[in-house]
Amino acid sequence: MRCCRFITFVAVALMSLLITLASVEAAGECGRMPIGQAAASLSPCLPATKNPRSKVPPVCCAKVGALIRTNPRCLCAVMLSPLAKNAGINPGIAIAVPKRCNIRNRQAGKRCGRYIVP
């Protein structure tokens, strides 16, 4: 009888551990938000990521500022993602959008792939 209880306890403990590990592994650079969803939220920024002279829309600056406050690594992950590349985003231009928005708490001097945040 004790043997069955012990085996049940071990099985439940292992299942709990596996569920915990799976949920931790599922959280990427953007937390639990899929990177595609994070990228879609930044769609107002698209013109500003292709041309360094284009005006950055205020809605873009608001979205970038919010993302920097909540999860700055996510912004870098989005800019370097295959989704961004497929959309024609130039990471060298995109990395400067927070500066062009005059966001003060950006991670200036930090690396984002091979780029340095201005």
TrEMBL record:
GO terms for biological process: lipid transport; systemic acquired resistance. InterPro entries: Bifun_inhib/LTP/seed_sf, Bifunc_inhib/LTP/seed_store, DIR1-like, Plant_nsLTP. Gene3D superfamilies: Plant lipid-transfer and hydrophobic proteins. Residues 30-112 form the Bifunctional inhibitor/plant lipid transfer protein/seed storage helical domain. One of its GO terms (molecular function) is fatty acid binding. CDD domains: AAI_LTSS (cd00010). Residues 1-26 form the signal peptide. Keywords: Signal. Belongs to the plant LTP family. This is Bifunctional inhibitor/plant lipid transfer protein/seed storage helical domain-containing protein. It comes from Microthlaspi erraticum.
